[in-house]
Amino acid sequence: MGVMPRTTLQERDFDVEFRAVTKKFGLVTAVDDVSFSILKGSFHSFLGPSGCGKTSSLRLIGGFEQPDAGEILVNNKSVVGVPPYRRQVNMVFQHYALFPHMDVATNVGYGLRQQRPRLSNKEIQQRVGDALALVRLSGYDRRRTWELSGGQQQRVALARALINKPTVLLLDEPLAALDRKLRKDMQVELKTLQREVGITFVFVTHDQEEALSMSDHIAVMRDGRIVQEGSPTELYHYPLDRYVAGFIGQSNFIAGKVIETGNQVAIRTPEGVVLRAPPSPKAKPLLPGESAVLALRPERIQLSTPEEKLPRVYPGYIAQSTFLGDQTEYHIRTETAEGSGVGALMVRTSSANSHFAPGEPVHLSWEENSGLVLLDD
Hints:
The protein is of the alpha+beta class.
């Protein structure tokens, strides 16, 4: 029996790779020596604020920009210098870029009609029908785009991008223009669609909820660099620093200086309160004297009345109460025994167990392993 040729991990697993890629616009470095790999068939998101480099990275993958340094690979082939129409990549823009003078079927089949040698009208019609069925728009062929809802327009844009069977589909904040309910519905539809077609989706967003709910892998960006990347669960539970913890989910941050290190890190707040929690296992070790924060997720904090005798409690009062349906969100002004505060903390509890009113005194408590001590960047 002959020996099978060895396939490298790189050749087998990745649809997109950046190798030390840099892109500048004048004096601004939009992408700064970035390297990453995107697994075949995955839903990968770039998350970060405006100007962090996420859309520039997407445009570099699509060929709408060319790098000043480094190498970009799509399907294991370098695409540096290759124009967008010669890449195995399609893009769905934030505002969809549909042609208003064309009906739905003509919009979806536009890319097929540009192919050479030209496809037959019968084949184009068949593939358009298949693409519309995939995005659940069968029967909408002759509708004008301006007759459609925002969610339907987005699905037309998706069908037009998918009909050419790209290796990678790029999505530049495609849900930003939708209302909250429709945006949540489309999050489910996009993830379902990605699983059905089995191709790699690369998604750009500044919305942490979108990234957490849809992604297999998230890269958090800042100032043109990737600060941390990993699965949504990994980033949520083990952020590297305050910046990542603030972008992945909601956190309370209590600032202080590191006074002890080890399996438990102790920080002293400016008010003299000493708080302890473990460090993030993904971060470099903290050093005594460094600025740090105790990061606490709102759902990890327990509320009690002053009459209840619980260990390690922090007194305060309800500053604001917001009903959210299944949960109630409290903003609490905390106090030490000396009367000084350690900040306003957000706490979320089940609405069924909520009975605190604004101005009411409360006690907060949490297990020492419920939070993380992170570098305060």
